[in-house]
Amino acid sequence: MATESDGAQTLGLGDEGRADVPHSAGVPTVAVVGLGYIGLPTAAVVARSGARVIGIDVSQHVVDTVAAGGIHIEERDLDELVRDVVASGALTTSITAHPADIFLIAVPTPFKDGHAPDIDYVLAATRGIAPVLKRGDSVILESTSPVGTTESIRDLLAEMRPDLRFPYSGDATAVADVAIAYCPERVLPGQIIRELVSNDRCIGGITPDCARRARDFYKRFVEGECIVTTARTAEMVKLVENAFRDVNIAFANELSVISDTLALDVWEVIRLANRHPRVNILQPGPGVGGHCIAVDPWFIVDSDPENARLIRTARDVNDDKVGYTVQRASAVIDAAPDGPVACLGLAFKPDIDDLRGSPALEVARQLAARYGDRLLVVEPYIDTLPPALADSGARLATLDQALDAATTAVLLVDHRDFRAVAADRRAHLAIYDSRGIWSGQG
C-alpha cells in the first residue's frame, strides 16, 4: 500500500501499529489501505458513519500526522473531519496490517514506460492484508485500475491463503469465505468530502453475492444510488468516465489551435456552440493533468491498442498542447519588453494544491529553462517551488509581487484569485491567457 508519492512496499504484520480495534456486532472494523488523496477522505467519512476505521499507510509521517489529528494533503473540510474522528477514537492509524471486517484498497495506479498500467502498489497492498484475512471479510478495490485487476487481487489472495475459499465468476453459486469487489471513487478535488456521500457508486463484484455485500457496506454512508454490476464492468466504467472527459477536452484543445490559426476567439466559439441544447464542449487549456484523466485512458489503450484509436489520439492532442502553449507564451514574452514574467498557476486544476501530472507545471518548467530568473511563479496553494523548478532560477512570488514587477503574464490555471484580478491591475502586462479568463470568455 502506498500514498500517491510512495514506492510500492509490502505491509508488515505485527503488533507495533497504533490500531488494535476489536470487532463488535453491528459495528464493522474497516481498514483503509493507503491514506492519500482518496484514502484519507474515505477513511474519515467512513469513520463519521459509525464504523471503526484503521487507516494504513507505508509512510510513517502520514501515519503519525493522521494519528495526531492532522492531514498531509489539502482538501476542503478534511482537516476538521479528521480531527473529530481521531479525537473520538473512530479513526486510528497503523503502518502494519491488522484484522478488520472490510478492507478498502486505495493506492496509486500509475503507468510505466510506454504507458503500460502499473498495479504494483495494488498487489503490494494485497500481499500486506493477506495474512490477516479471515472468513467473512470483504476486500474492495477503489483504485482506478485496468480491467481484470480485481480478479488479479483474488488470484493473489487465493495463492497466499489456500485455507480460504475465494469467489470465481464462473461458479457464482459457490459460497466464498471472502468477498471481493471493485468500487471506484468519482469525486472532484475540493469537493471530495461532499461527493463521497452524495454521488452514485458503481459497485462490481466477482460474483453477485460479492457485489451485494459491498453495496451493503457503501449504503452505510453513501446517499447516492449504489448500483451493482460485475467487477470487470465497474473497472471499465471508471476508465470510460475519464476517457470521455479526456476526449471532450482534446476536442476543445484542438479547436483552440484551429481558432488561433483562423484568428478566432475560441472562448466565444465554444460559448455560442454550447447554446445548442445537445452540445456541451468543455474548456481548452494548456493540456490535461492530474492522476486520473491524463492516466486512465491509457489503461484502455493498453487493453486494446488496435481499436482504441480515438482515445489514443485524444491523449496525443492533450499532451501536445503543452508544447503549443510554451510556443505561444514564448512568442508573447519575446515580443514584450525585457522584464520579469509572471507565471500564474502550477496546479492541474483550479483552487487545489495538487501538482500531479500538471500541464501547467510542465509549461512553467519549459519556460524556466528558457527565461530562468526572469520567471516569477505564482501558485497560492504551495509554499515552496517543486523540484522541477527548484534549480531553474525561477522564484516563487505572491500574486501582488508578480503583478507589480512583471512586464508579461502567462496564465496557466484559473484559480479564483487570478479570476478576481481587475482589468486595471493587469493593464500594463503583455498577456498570454491559456484559460480565457482575462482575454476571452472562459
Can you describe this structure?
This protein has about 450 residues and is α/β, with parallel strands linked by helices. It folds into two domains: about 10-240, 3-Layer(aba) Sandwich (Rossmann fold); about 285-435, Rossmann fold, CATH 3.40.50.720. Helices cover about 40% and strands about 15% of the residues. The chain contains 15 helices and 15 strands. The protein has helices at about 40-50, 60-65, 80-85, 120-130, 150-160, 190-200, 210-220, 230-260, 265-275, 295-305, 310-335, 360-370, 385-390, 400-405, 415-420; strands at about 10-15, 30-35, 50-55, 90-95, 95, 100-105, 140, 180, 200-205, 225-230, 340-345, 375-380, 395, 410, 430-435. Strands 4-3-2-6-7-8-9-10 form an eight-stranded mixed β-sheet, sandwiched between helices. The longest helix has about 30 residues, at about 230-260. The protein is globular, with a radius of gyration of 23 Å. The protein starts with 11 loop residues before the first strand and ends in a 9-residue tail after the last strand.
Descriptive tags:
8-stranded mixed beta sheet; Rossmann fold; 442 residues; alpha/beta; single chain
Q: How many separate domains?
A: 2
Class based on secondary structure composition and strand pairing: alpha/beta
Approximate helicity band:
25-40%
Mean pLDDT: 92
Largest sheet: 8 strands, mixed
In short:
The chain is α/β, with parallel strands linked by helices. It has helices at 39-48, 60-67, 78-87, 120-129, 149-160, 192-198, 208-218, 231-261, 266-273, 296-303, 309-335, 359-371, 387-390, 399-405, 416-419, and strands spanning 12-13, 29-33, 52-56, 91-94, 96-97, 102-105, 138-141, 179-182, 201-205, 226-230, 341-344, 375-378, 395-396, 408-411, 430-433.
